[in-house]
């Protein structure tokens, strides 16, 4: 029983591949290596270099490896950059997903776990986001993820595709030192790189209506996220049904100030962050409930904030 992991050479995808292997499920990776890394893919896992936009390649990969289901993580993931590159974002995330679903239909592969995003919510007007919270994406990236969910829904109606989409927020940490977050836009690598290079990290805004005045967000460990993908895939593989979407959230969140404190403790680098003005459009708090995922997927956070930071720093130090 083999699952295709699109984007499986990336930071999140490579953790998903390892999580599948830990429970005895085989995988094959399809990745164009635009942001992924060959060395992130285990030696015993086949790596097909190419794009999900190449329908024939995807179909051939599904057939050659006897794939029974897909975990779809491939895509352009930078929300801020997507504002300047909307056509590229839609091509990669919307057109690419359509081509993937076309290839799956041609090969009779009828199960998919889609890596969606909390960006579909935009700036919610509730303290705790649930799956019924209104979706109001504020970037082409968020819009493309929501359209991806619609594509799965419509293909489910038309062709019986069994699917679920996992919406999550900020993914951090490392499950093993050889895998690390290489994004030039994410908070953890930005702060860790600054500390390693002798620069002072920055907090944007300390006057928000939160307990310590800084923004509050959901942060989840990448290994916990990978386990959720495996849990969803196993339900589908066993013929079970799932809700169309699940939030993977903490229910309480962590502030930027708390993260800075944890960074100083984990790295041993004492610092006082620079204080800058708020960034336009940054909401004070975005936190999601993970209750539905706990009910159906056994979702729970097993890593503390200190462990998230420590594992991220260990991986950063390794490289």
From TrEMBL:
Any GO molecular function: UDP-glucose 4-epimerase activity
Q: Which residues form the NAD-dependent epimerase/dehydratase domain?
A: 3-249
Q: What is its EC number?
A: 5.1.3.2
Broad enzyme group? isomerase
Record-given protein name? UDP-glucose 4-epimerase
What InterPro entries does the record tag this protein with?
A: Epimerase_deHydtase, NAD(P)-bd_dom_sf, UDP_G4E
UniProt keyword terms in alphabetical order: Carbohydrate metabolism, Isomerase, NAD
Write out the GO biological process terms: galactose catabolic process via UDP-galactose, Leloir pathway
Give the family per the record.
Belongs to the NAD(P)-dependent epimerase/dehydratase family.
- NCBIfam families according to UniProt: galE
CC cofactor: NAD(+)
What pathway annotation does it carry? Carbohydrate metabolism; galactose metabolism
- Reaction catalysed by this chain? UDP-alpha-D-glucose = UDP-alpha-D-galactose
């Amino acid at each position: 029983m083999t699952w295709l992991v699109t984007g499986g050479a990336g930071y999140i995808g490579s953790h998903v591949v390892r999580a599948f292997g830990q429970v005895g499920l085989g995988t094959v990776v399809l990745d164009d290596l635009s942001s992924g890394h060959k060395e992130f893919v285990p030696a015993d896992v086949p790596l097909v270099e190419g794009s999900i936009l190449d329908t024939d390649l995807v179909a051939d990969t599904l057939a050659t490896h006897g794939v029974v289901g897909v975990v779809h993580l491939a895509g352009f993931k930078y929300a801020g950059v997507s504002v300047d590159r909307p056509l590229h974002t839609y091509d990669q995330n919307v057109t690419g997903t359509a081509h993937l679903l076309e290839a799956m239909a041609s090969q009779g592969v009828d199960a998919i776990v889609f890596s969606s995003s909390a960006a579909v919510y935009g700036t919610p007007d509730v303290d705790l986001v649930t799956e019924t919270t209104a979706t109001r994406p504020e970037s082409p990236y968020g819009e493309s993820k929501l359209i991806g969910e619609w594509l799965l829904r419509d293909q489910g109606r038309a062709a019986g595709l069994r699917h679920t989409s996992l919406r999550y927020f900020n993914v951090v940490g490392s499950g093993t030192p050889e895998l690390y977050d290489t994004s030039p836009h994410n908070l953890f690598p930005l702060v860790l790189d600054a500390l390693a290079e002798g620069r002072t990290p920055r907090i944007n805004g300390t006057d928000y209506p939160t307990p310590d005045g800084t923004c509050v967000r959901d942060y989840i460990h990448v290994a916990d996220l990978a386990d959720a993908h495996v849990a969803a895939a196993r339900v589908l593989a066993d013929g079970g049904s799932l809700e169309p979407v699940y939030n993977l959230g903490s229910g309480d969140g962590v502030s930027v100030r708390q993260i800075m404190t944890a960074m100083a403790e984990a790295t041993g680098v004492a610092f006082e962050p620079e204080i800058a003005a708020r960034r336009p459009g940054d909401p004070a708090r975005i936190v999601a409930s993970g209750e539905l995922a706990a009910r159906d997927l056994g979702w729970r956070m097993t890593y503390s904030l200190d462990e998230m930071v420590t594992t991220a720093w260990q991986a950063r130090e390794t490289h």
